[in-house]
Amino acid sequence: MNKDAGSRFPGEAEILTMSLADYGERRWPAAMHGLETLTMSPYQAGWRLRVVPSIGHVLVRKVTRRVVNRALHCWIADECGLSTVKNSLAVLVRVLEQAVRDGVLDANPARVAGWQQEYQRAQSERTTPRALALPDVQALERLAATLVQRSSDGYAGWGDIVRFAAWTGTRFSEVSALQAQDIDMGTWTWQVQRFTVSAPAGLDDRACRGRHQRVVPLRPAARELAAGRLEAARHTPVARLFTGPHRSRFTAAALRDTTRWDDVVAELGHEYLRRQDLRHTGLTWMADAGLPLPLLCGAAGRPPQDARRYLPPDGPVRSAERPGEPPASSAPARTTGGGRTAFRRPPAG
């Protein structure tokens, strides 16, 4: 074991209960030994602003490749710059390399490959998100039905989870954390305010922050999926509307593995479709149906310049506030048209 570079080496018993944040602070001089002064500043920022808030609570001996990948994907989703992600990952590599030298880990789980391609894909999503949407309702139904058919447990709930995520443009982690009290049946809107994560003690719910906390309008197809569940939970506000086969929380990874997601989307000709890409389907369909831009921004949790990319290229852009018109309602009236539901403003006065 390495006991160099000016910090007291923690004992073996102490390491077993030490979080990554505590270990990094204790072994920082050893981990950063030989680093140039100019490089130290961005590394410190990456550690303090991204690594510690994301996974600093995880026991250092339990940091795995999956934990690192989850943090990396969060940084990319939060639109951190390429150099920011690179520096954050680099400092994590150094700290975990020290853990390997200290005998805490057998291998360094932060030495991941291919994340640059993931970053470029995220950049592409932000510029052309409509290209990642399913083409129509029939494609969604085929996907949901095939996932259930191919699942190892035959759980029909997987199909409803996929349908609801697509119609609402939300993530599976948010669907897992959805409670009856989050839906306002008067306006048929969903206040997205928590999501499910994998924690050291198992699955847990955490509060959404910033733009991830938002209001999503429920279109008729989503209402139908939620209505029966809301009726059953009318006396239990904290009841979950969508659960895994064991009537509990679920993760996107569990859905992927159980339903053989990767194989199914390839067979159906949707090789581009990752699990979280269903949000692009929902937001694209909302835009095609005429959801006003302010409400689309709210549903997406994105600024107008990003939400505009979901608008149909040959369709009129609905102005947020035209002269003489009332502000857009948080629960716009809806009228059916064709295979999708069209949103319209309520009449003035």
TrEMBL record:
Which residue stretches, if any, does this entry annotate as coiled coil?
none
Cross-referenced InterPro entries: DNA_brk_join_enz, Integrase-like_cat_sf, Integrase_catalytic, Integrase_recombinase_N, Tyrosine_recombinase_XerCD
Q: What region holds the Tyr recombinase domain?
A: 161-295
Q: Extract the GO molecular function terms from the UniProt entry.
A: DNA binding
Q: Which GO terms describe its biological process?
A: DNA integration; DNA recombination
Q: Which UniProt keywords apply?
A: DNA recombination, DNA-binding
Give me the ranges of the annotated region Disordered: 304-349
Keyword Metal-binding attributed: no
Please report a single Pfam family linked to this protein. Answer: Phage_integrase
The protein's matches in PANTHER family, at most eight in alphabetical order, are given as: PHAGE INTEGRASE-RELATED (PTHR30349), PROPHAGE INTEGRASE INTD-RELATED (PTHR30349:SF64)
The family line of this record is: Belongs to the 'phage' integrase family.
What's this protein's name? Tyrosine-type recombinase/integrase
**Native source organism of the sequence:** Streptomyces caniferus
